[in-house]
User: Fold these one by one.
Assistant:
Number 1:
Amino acid sequence: MTPSSPSLDPAQCAALLRQAKSAVALTGAGVSTGAGIPDFRGPNGLYVTRRYDPELVFSIDHFRKDPRMFYEFTRDFMGTLQKVKPTFTHRFLARLEGLGMLKGVVTQNIDALHRYAGSRRVVEIHGSYWSATCISCRGAAAQAKSYEWWEESIRKSPRSPVLCCGTCGGVIKPDVVFFGEAVRGFEEAVQMVEGCDLLLVLGSSLAVYPAASLPQLTRAAVVLVNKGGVALAPAANRFFVEARLDDYFSQVAERLGIAIETA
Ligand code: CNA
């Protein structure tokens, strides 16, 4: 990952977690690949397979002109999401929070798997499919609150998968943050990171701003666990661990004596 920078073995990570009073996790797409959801920049990521072009799919300008590509992506994505379960790492983070060892999770992910795993304080800075709004009248699409709703609604209208507002006929857009839109809950995310005494940065290339700026806001220990490169310069408080998340955190959990039920 960053060869010249220090790493941290699972026992050392467990020791940091034991000492921490206000640990926080910042997660990216890599935390969900173990559940079968491709990331953007890993070997099966959208930037590599090019099945969908993420910059078009998640472009707000393109969506306003023609939302069909986004809806085709959403139909496939919902098909995948219905089958997935939170990974070991999602469940481990929820358990840490339950034990009072983690203050909460800031996530760039839109898959809501932290919620499914039982995490209570989750700041989804790139939004999620949990709610949706009409781009014309700004009315909330009240029923949009589960993968099942999206999957079923799109399946019911196979000829034109684009969902429209019951009030004005405008296009419904999930409250996922697109390229060109402002992130959500960023103030809370900044407060959490500034107030933490340990930051876990998990499964993120840190290529997307402003999320990528968060680890720079703290002098507390920052443990980055990722397969592949991370765009953060080495520093005395930063530990770079090149590992698969579920493998690494199952060892950390073992050192902490925390048993996580298998899904
Ligand atoms: P990214 O840029 O794709 O980085 C993910 C990183 O995780 C890559 O460096 C991978 O090599 C690494 N990785 C993949 N699997 C593992 C694993 N099992 N263990 C350790 N490391 C692994 O994604 P970021 O989150 O950094 O980029 C932010 C984008 C991606 C946000 O806008 C997200 O909304 C968007 N995204 C989200 C999802 C999701 O919700 N699951 C999926 C794909 C993209």
Number 2:
Amino acid sequence: MDLYHRSIEVILQNQHSSGAYIASPAFPNYHYCWLRDGSFIAHAMDRVGEYQSSEAFFRWVDRAINKYSYKVDKLEDQIKNAPFTGERSILHTRYTLDGEEESSDSTWGNFQIDGYGTWLWALAAHVQMTKNYALLSEFSTSINTTIRYLRAAWQLPNYDCWEEHPEFLHPYSLSAVYGGLNAVAALISSGHLKECTFPVEAYAREVKDFLSRAAISDQRIVKHVWPASQKQAARPVKKSGVDASLLGFAIPYAVFPLDDKVIVETMDAIEKELHRPNGGVYRYREDVYYGGGEWILLTAWLGWYYAKNNEPQRAQRLLAWIEDCADARGNLPEQVNNHLLAPSEYQSWVERWGPVATPLLWSHAMYLILSEELKQPTNSK
Ligand code: BGC
């Protein structure tokens, strides 16, 4: 079976009856469903026409958000009563496959806002593709709760998409918030989402203005932003380097146009600093997780950007590299560890958590998204 069909099979076989996608079935720490991974996986299922699968995931998210929406009421109260010093009431980044919070590991960085933006973006893309606009009425409570949550939380420091650095704000996470809000705003203005009365377009614009002001240094998007303090406005962490997740600014969240100088410079930095020639893409230079290997999903993401940017040959090369990384059963790992950034760190992770997560559903999903993007007539020349 080719990797395209195998990828669909891996995802469908590992979707729980609840609709949740397990992050990786063979890696105990990933036996949960993340909103971030799951939303991209659902989008991949939409791209390949497996709409029942994606809809089941969206229904799972809708139930989880409704179940924990009381936490958003609480957070809004906490924000109103600033200054607040206790523990914030937040929505978790991942849930058990039954849609419950996982609380046994209190050290896990549960506060990560990007997945909530990504689910709104992926849901909007799903209803546009399937014309199943009725889902929007069905989900109006969870959509409104998500908007209220992002509105309350977007300027609070939280963990980044690699579950690190809770002391900062993260441009990638905010690009996902922008992308989600902007997608909902479009549904409101086209008349498809009537049950949302928040000025979502203005909310999205505020996030974008903030990013223009606080996330750019030397014409490049930085990895982290200092949150505002009583004395100072939010500002870029200048030495935070480039992170491959910043691809999200270009695709899919389209914060700035592809020919904007800031996008061109940032994508160029990702290419030069994080793409190993003829190889894959690293997360960031200081990465030590499993020795800091090349990530399949980021390699596909860079290819997705090249395909969109009318550079199909570059995208094809990345696709071919990914295909070479599949194991004999056609499984894709989270990362490939032949050219590590920090080789001495590899073994201790294997001892702690076992071999690298394989298959990782998000890797298969991004491979599918890239494959589909390359089929678009304008991108295959
Ligand atoms: C990554 C997250 C991802 C999670 C599950 C973590 O190691 O940093 O981005 O959501 O694994 O795949």
Number 3:
Amino acid sequence: MLEDKEQKRTSLERLGEFGLIEHLTQNFELNHASSIKGIGDDAAVLDSTEYKTVLTTDLLVEGVHFDLSYMPLKHLGYKAVMVNLSDVYAMNAKATQITVSLAVSNRFPLEALEELYDGIALACKMYNVDLIGGDTTSSQKGMLISVTALGQVNEEQISYRNGARPNDLLVVSGDLGGAYMGLQVLEREKEVYKVNPNSQPDLSPYSYIVERQLKPEARKDIVELLAKLEVKPTSMIDISDGLSSEIMHLSKSSGVGCNLFEDKIPLDPTVISACEEFKMDSTLVALSGGEDYELLFTVKQEDYEKIKGNPNLTVIGYMTEANEGTHLVTRGNHKIPLTAQGWNSFSNSEEE
Ligand code: ADP
Ligand code: MG
């Protein structure tokens, strides 16, 4: 892709920083009333509204968080926005603006950054957020991309991590483990490609899980659904590192325990078949895999009627008193302590 000599390559030096920023951002519009001034001055200007503002930021580093040998730049741009919007939605807020900061080495031509910004533009359009600024600089090696996202929420609607109470139901959106298994497939194809560059991988049986890895979607729809159902989560977090560590975060912040039922964990059939193929335990993949960007939240028991049967939501457990600990209740009805990595027998002793 990047190395393709047939493609047009315009070196970044030819444009200069101002030309580059203007070129990349010329088609972005401002759609939110709170965006008073976007790109083009020393700072963006936002209207402070009747809402509370939420703000979150993430830094993605080439070779650490993404691998451009299988991550198309358009997808990278899209995903960099998604991981931030996911954090905004995890506060039960509406995402409104982003900034994008980039460091790129001169190995990237303008066309590569155009692709990256195509992905960013698509994310802004699909999720109705305004790009209001950023920063652009060079790097010695590789690419860094940092996105900051802002959102708005009514103070009473904010869902912190610390609001879960004993007997609250633990609920997750969508299904889990797909992004991790997609990564396994992509890593395997990369190794095959290294040995035989002419091989044409057939990824079609894996399209769902590969898409979960390369084009995750933040769950804006779930925040809207909960508002429609008039359910306010007592606590909420997004699943970036795996179900287990996110449950531990909610439990610890809230000062409660948790029982998670193995047989309730939602898994797509393609995740189950990929786990069989890779000889991995699907429960462990869901618990430790990460990057699913689903929402994990707790609701009061009395809200069960409002959420039950919704195809987007699965009740996977309930919260307990803190002294009962956080456990996985297996299919065989054994209780195993959860750890940040999954469960106890697989953990190394470094973490709690
Ligand atoms: P300054 O020198 O004051 O940092 P810049 O020249 O970096 O200003 O930025 C000029 C304008 O372009 C600012 O509004 C800034 O937010 C915006 N901008 C810079 N880089 C990016 C980028 N990568 N994406 C979006 N907007 C950017
Ligand atoms: Mg700058």
Number 4:
Amino acid sequence: MAGVAYVNGRYLPLSEASVSIEDRGFQFADGIYEAWAVLGGKLADAAGHFERMERSLAELRMAQPMSRAALKLVILETLRRNRITEGFCYLQITRGQAPRDHGFPNPAVRPSLIITCKPVDYAAEARKSEKGVAVSTQPDIRWGRCDIKTVGLLPNVLAKQAAREAGAYEAWLVDSGGMVTEGSSTNAWIVDARGVLITRDTRANILRGVTRKHLMELAAELQMPVEERAFSVEEAKDAKEAFLTAASAFVTPITAIDGKQVGDGRPGPVAARLRAHYIDKARRGD
Ligand code: PLP
């Protein structure tokens, strides 16, 4: 049986059902999902799943695309079109389609809503259940692998948005020990009173920035000392300079941290020098 999906107001054959590649679900995992078992044509635990869906949306400050009653009608219609009375229904809502940028689209865009369903052979499931199943234990790393440049960027999105709402360009993320790890989409650097460049070491749970690595080589060429180590928010606020690095920002000076001026509150000479050298080398193709 050819499946039918609901996508943003339309019931479409699965082969034609699609969302934009600029959808924030695809780009950032900036969305929520919910799923129901369908038994005897009814959604099992319907209210419990709707309540959690509404909570998830509220936590992410995402608009609910339609009322709970309307959503239920659309789900039941999707099941009807698929002739499913015993099965499983999946719903996903994302923050919608917008040019890629971590912060929330401003103005807000229409959230994306998709619903798919599949038949389930509950008699076969019952046979499985009679036998029982095995589990294998695994470390709970959710999501503790910031070294992987994954598209699961929802925490980064929320941090960037919070920073923007605080009037800042970037968020600096702070670990449980009060030490800066990195930015939401950049690596973090400070320059101490001796002129030493300090950036978090890669034993920490951070992305190994390509710009960060290149800058360490550049610093060595320019005979600027670098220390890879943890630094606290207080140390950063008292630093001579602070800056961030990323392919999207090269070397960008930071003039304030949580409202406290860094140095004299103006872009510092070390960041400016590194930025100029970095761009110059990149233009020459080095
Ligand atoms: N840290 C995070 C979390 C990032 O997402 C990025 C870039 O996207 C960076 C650091 C900087 O990495 P790169 O210099 O490779 O662009």
